Amino acid sequence: MTPAGGETTSPSRSTLRTRVAAGSFLVGAIVVSALFATGGWQRRWNADDGLIVLRTVRNLMAGNGPVFNMGERVEANTSTLWQYVLWFFSWLTGGQLEWVAIWTALTLSVLAVPLAMYGTARLYWPSISAGGLSLLLPLGAIIYIALPPARDFATSGLENGLTIFWVAGLWVLFLAWCRREPGARRDGASTLLLAFVAGLAPLIRPEITLLGALVLVVLVCSPTTWRMRFGIAAVAGFLPVAYQVFRMGYYAVLVPNPAIAKDASGSKWGQGFKYLSNMFGPYVLLLPVILALIAVGWLLYSRRTAVPASPAPVARGRHAKPDDDDAVLDSVAQIADARPTGLRARWTRLSHGLRQPKTAVIVVLVAGLLLSLYWLRQGGDFMHARVLLTPLFILLLPIMVIPVTIPEHVRLAWRAPNSPADEVVRRKTRTALGGAVLMGLIWIATVSWAIVVHENTLEGDGLDIGRVGIVDERRFYAVNMGNPNPVTAQDYLKFPRMEAMMKSIEEFHEKGAVLIASANYDEWYYVKLPDKMPPNTPRQVSVFFLNLGMTSMNAPLDVRVIDQMGLAYPIAAHTDRLPDGRIGHDKILPREWVVAESGAFGRYPLLPIFMDEEVVQQAQVALTCPATMDRIASYKDKPFTLKRFRSSLRQSFGFTDYRMSRIPEYEIQRCGLPMPPRIRPEK
User: Fold this and answer.
1) In 3D, which of 397, 364, 362 has the Cα closest to residue 140?
2) Which positions ≥6 away from 27 have C-beta within 8 Å?
3) In this model, does residue 265 exceed pLDDT 70?
């Protein structure tokens, strides 16, 4: 090729450009991955919510089915695929569940970052190979791994690692599809693979279905055959639709129980912006965001001012797909000039323009912004930064790496022009050189920011949850137990009340009782079961406590563990949300419901004095509400038959939206039931 200025670009120079770009990418990917792996391992832990997942895995391995409590068909985990991934690796390795969760989450988290970087490198590769000497430097990857919460949730026993790994894999496959020529070899199989991966979204996290759905819409709307469109729909929909039918028939609801407990359709914008501030503040995250936006601005501008490597057109094969988006846009513009401007013609032009890399960039940016808005509307979460990590990761995809390109003929920037064309080349060369300096400074500033903030923490000592209800969860448990890396259920026995709970379980294991937490960390209140139990009510220990994970993983599987929020307890989940409750904890079921529903003896002197026997009696009556009885039967009926499956399938729509009052007296009125007479008439 003959570059501007009349000099020849040799094959060795082209090879050098490729090697420098590939080498810089490889070094960056290795360094970033090593830092992320080290940071994730140093901060390894299993969150209390992560242990909730492992309780379900324990039941799966014991043959009790995908349930949290034996004999109760309740889906206590939001990420369906994550619990089955852990079950598979636990079965395969035979390892301790807690450590299987640590290693699986950490591996997926660490792999996600270089995989996302690889996809972004492919996005910029055509412009890199066109001319100049380019370095592919990590930018978005550094921003992500520098955040302490990102390293916290690289393990935690939760699905964050699986989620970002899926996002990175989808990004790579989607970009490859956008660059592939339609009808190329194996294009059909690759398209179906992309559709399958996109279709997994609702099984990973319900809200990221948005990203998977946008990708599928692009696949279906791009020029292809109807046979392929049906294939895309079938491949993408088979697993999630099949599981949804199973969920409706087995659990009798449309969504996981935590979605009902947290009322995922609610709205708390004010709390959401507090959550955003809680994430940005400690790490001055606004600074790298501004730097990233400047980098994006330069990348967009540089596409229009690039110094051409050769004025002569390069010969291409008849079916080759252009490497540069501008060439695609030019061809589309030519087609547009030659066609009518009707609605159908406009749709045709839009459809033919979908299969290009900028579509993938637009899709991930739109999805990332919408997911961020979704979580702001929801009010965020009680765990510091957790739910905004995935939207942030998605938004950073187009700049996971950035090209820093030094123009091929730098001396042209200072050479006196001999013609107007030379002046244009000199101006563009100077602009490109200035852009390289700018991108280099942005990268240096981002690395400097990461070094400064990578160990920052929220204010306080980790023990104070604060008025906004948001807590650094890993630090909270580490400080409370004096253990920087709480991993196993045994580690959590050091948490207040846990050792006393285990003693109480052992004491009442045979006769059964309802155990209720006491203000004294060394003892639990208990309510005994009567000698003769009500029909269809098992004699067992029921532990009623907020920290569901540590409780359930330390307790035997035949001990029922339930919580006032309703993550594993449908009666609590179906109560109304408290308007001013702590985010993620804004349903609180009074203890009297548990005494009534468990069949325990709800009268003084056996009932603890701080509980109200009148309220227990009202709860017993409220539980006879026909709709509530149907809901309880939907997850407790034994044996589980095909008839029960069909009935639950039909009832799942109504049960998902079913709500009841947390106050037994009001619930009796809502159901139109007669109020029971007072046990002790007022004097």
Assistant:
1) 397
2) none
3) no
